[in-house]
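Quick note —
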Amino acid sequence: MRVRTLVTDCDIRPAVVVDAADIVFLTQRAYAEPVRPGAPLLFVDEDEESVARDMDRGWRMMIAHHGGLAVGAVRFRCDGDTVRVARLVVDPLHRRRGIGSALLRTVEQEAAKLGIGRLLGEAPSSNGFATYFERHGFIFQNERMIGPLRFVEMVKSTIAAS
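Predicted structure written out below.
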């Protein structure tokens, strides 16, 4: 049963280390359920310690809550003049409610605060995420293989803060 969650009902805030368990849970749920029937399942080997290590390495994370329940998350990191976006996840029961879009907008706002007008996202090419990023103004930049998996790199230029 899908839960009727609207983005206006969500609280999006910066994640801290105590949110690591929720981020791991969301990531595993999001990658375990295919976006569309027949799409291959991906497995993300991650635990609370690896999330904390990512935070120590400069990855910032945003988390969305609805009714006290974590329903979405995204991580991003500044690399020079680019903000790298990774692991945008929404709990399968809360998809198609604007939560992922709101998380992406939040990352764009954070980038603008830093004066960065270029976002770079990477997604598995087989699960529809490239199309999702395209709908949000990203364009194809590159493709690479990691083992048997094909990934696409998508870039978006925004108006840089002055």
